[in-house]
Amino acid sequence: MHLPFRDVARVGPNDLITSDPELMRRMLNVRTHYRRSAWYDAMRLDPTKDNVLSQRNDELHASTRSKMAAGYSGREVDDLEPRIDANVQRLIGLIDGYIARDKPFDFGHKAQYFTLDIISDLAFGEPFGDVETDSDVHGYIGATEESMPTIIVTTVMPWVMKLLQMPIFKGMLPSDKDPVGVGRTMAIAKKVTAERFGPNAKVQRDMLGSFVAKGLGRSQVESEILMQILAGDTFKGVYLPGGTKIGYCAWGIYRRRDIFGDDADEFRPERWVEAPEEKLRLMEDTLELVFGYGRWQCLGKNIAMMELNKVFVELVRRFDLAVVNPIKPWNSTKRRSFPAV
């Protein structure tokens, strides 16, 4: 997808996929006339409720984002940086334990534990405890991985979501009565939300407290705790009929040789040091698309960057990480799902 003549390719009767960062910015900018398609209906963790990711109504989406922005920016979260620092230290302690026992470990799992702990710490005021226990405490990660094939099916066949909302299929959906998985997280969300909206509610300066203070309702808060676009355009001489779904190919965008060099498929961090200023700016602007762009840019981008900058500095400073088996560095499963606009 990173070759010039394949910047836009047809993958279905009414579906295109692109690896062109210019088209991505055109579709996602704040004044775009593109709209989210039914693909996003599958992003509802609770099939009966929209969240800021699944919301397709532009006005409601903008309103919800405006009420959540302060919380995600960290401006209204007490001890934001110390909380992240504490979680980084817990991760370092976990890795130190493996080193002391001379035992290899799957860093992918530890990274997931670390991320969930930070999100829950900032949102609820305390971490789930995944890093401390070295486990998926509530089974959230496992349940999410198991449900990924279903999510992919519902993105390409959105009508399945309507079926799942029928009473006959209710038993197949996550429930706050479930002991683990997404359902368990739903239960935590309901419990925490009830405390914030109850008669003895206390104002707390965390992410959730900011959402409440900015006017999100109880149902919206529950949905946000859990947490494609329609065309009609001509781009670079190619007509995109109205109603066409356009997804983006991240693999293609971040391996474009005209942006990242002829060795774009190689892991070579030096490219970021060697690149001339203009080339570096182009590379950085393209890379930032991983957080989305414009009106749909990730609200948590600033927190994510703070988290990444802190944890990588500590990991590189303290450890010399190596792949246990270079011949077979990892096991991977391909599941295809392209956000469509």
Describe the structure using short key phrases:
mainly alpha, about 5% strand, disordered N terminus, about 350 residues, 15 helices, two-stranded antiparallel ribbon
Radius of gyration: 21 Å
Give the strand tally.
5
Major sheet: arrangement of strands:
1-2-5
Estimated share of beta-strand residues? 5-15%
Mean of residue pLDDT values: 83
- Shape field: globular
User: What is the N-to-C order of secondary-structure elements (H for helix, E for strand)?
Assistant: EEHHHHHHHHHHEEEHHHHH
Helix content: 40-55%
- The CA-CA distance between the termini, in Å, is 18 Å
**What class would the helix/strand composition place it in?**
mainly alpha
Question: What oligomeric state do the depicted chains represent?
Answer: single chain
Uncertain ranges: 1-5
Largest sheet: 3 strands, mixed
Helix count equals 15
InterPro entries: Cyt_P450, Cyt_P450_sf, Cytochrome_P450_monoxygenase
GO molecular function: heme binding; iron ion binding; monooxygenase activity; oxidoreductase activity, acting on paired donors, with incorporation or reduction of molecular oxygen
Keywords: Heme, Iron, Metal-binding
Protein name: Cytochrome P450
